[in-house]
Amino acid sequence: MTWYPATSSGLGDHEKDVVYFDTKPIIGWRAWQIEFIDGEPQSVRSITYPLRWPPRKIMRAHCIFAYQKTQREAFAARPHHSPTVSHSCGIYSVKTSAQARTWTTAAGQQRIIGKVALWGRVLMYSEGAKAEFAYPVNFIVPPTLKENMVGIDHADLCAWLENAYGVEAHVGEEEFIL
Amino acid sequence: MEIGDPTETIEIIPDETELPEPLREPDPVEVPVRRPAKPERVPA
């Protein structure tokens, strides 16, 4: 994780220049973790911080450091927009499915990938983006996701994802060819 | 998560039609207006 020191204004120099405006969300890729309770899928969550993505509602970035008692508390005490270059908060995405796939390799977790629409304040990076608002465009279940591990077969998991979030879901093949 | 180096900032205010479908307002449904029938005039 890259840590950018905060400036006196709380904004990095890069952010003082909003380069341009657009009306179309940017499409990126990311990974999610599936939350199960008693063997039933409940929601998809972010993978670094297990924040729930609300079904059929906009996911909005905010800096959760403000709620943590850590050594970074001094930074959190200064309110700031999320995302910002000066801090690591924001909704992350990468450019390709191959990059997103590398986020699914954590042992013992049920992770999926998919495209995500990003809008609001979007900070572009050489390998991805951090955004203010987001919503999944589709979900792709790894064929290697062990059905006995998640307690539900792939087809049922895809059906649940489609019903809950209202977007297409399928078991990936080409997205997971190494 | 490593996403490289910052390049630029974009402010995106999407048209509603550009948002993922579950976030769009449903098209308004036209409900036919039902008017009460006029009472028949009874000749005096």
Structural account:
The complex is a heterodimer of chains A (178) and B (44). Chain A is built from four helices and ten strands; from the N terminus they run E-E-E-E-E-H-E-H-E-E-E-H-H-E. Chain A has helices spanning 73-76, 97-101, 147-150, 154-165; strands at 20-22, 26-37, 40-45, 52-53, 59-60, 91-94, 111-125, 128-136, 138-141, 168-171. In chain A, strands 2, 3, 4, 5, 6, 7 and 8 form a seven-stranded antiparallel sheet that branches. In chain A, strands 9-10 form a two-stranded parallel sheet. Chain A is globular, with a radius of gyration of 17 Å. With 178 residues, chain A is of the alpha+beta class. Chain B is rod-shaped, with a radius of gyration of 27 Å. Chain B has one strand at residues 6-12. With 44 residues, chain B is mainly β. Chain B has no helices and one strand. Classes of the chains: A alpha+beta (178), B mainly beta (44). Strand 1 of chain A pairs parallel with strand 1 (6-12) of chain B, so a sheet runs across the interface.
Can you describe this structure in just a few lines?
By secondary structure, chain A is α+β, with helices and mostly antiparallel strands. Chain A has four helices and ten strands. The longest helix of chain A is centred in the C-terminal third of the chain and has 12 residues, at 154-165.
How far from one another are the termini of chain A?
24 Å
The share of residues in extended strands of chain B comes to 15-25%
Please compute the radius of gyration of chain B using only Cα atoms. 27 Å
**What is the total tally of β strands of chain A?**
10
* Secondary structure tally: strands of chain B: 1
Number of helices of chain A: 4
Mean pLDDT of chain A: 82
Whole-Å distance between the termini of chain B?
A: 88 Å
* Count of separate DSSP helical elements of chain B: 0
Beta-strand percentage range of chain A? 25-35%
Rounded to an integer, what's the Rg of chain A over CA atoms?
17 Å
**Mean pLDDT reading of chain B:** 82
Task: State the helical fraction of chain A.
Answer: 10-25%
Measured by residues with Cβ under 8 Å of the partner chain's Cβ, the largest interface is: A-B, 46 and 21 residues
Q: Major sheet of chain B: size, sense and barrel closure?
A: none
User: What kind of oligomer do you see?
Assistant: heterodimer
Q: What overall geometry of chain A do the principal axes of the alpha carbons give? A: globular
Order of helices and strands of chain B: E
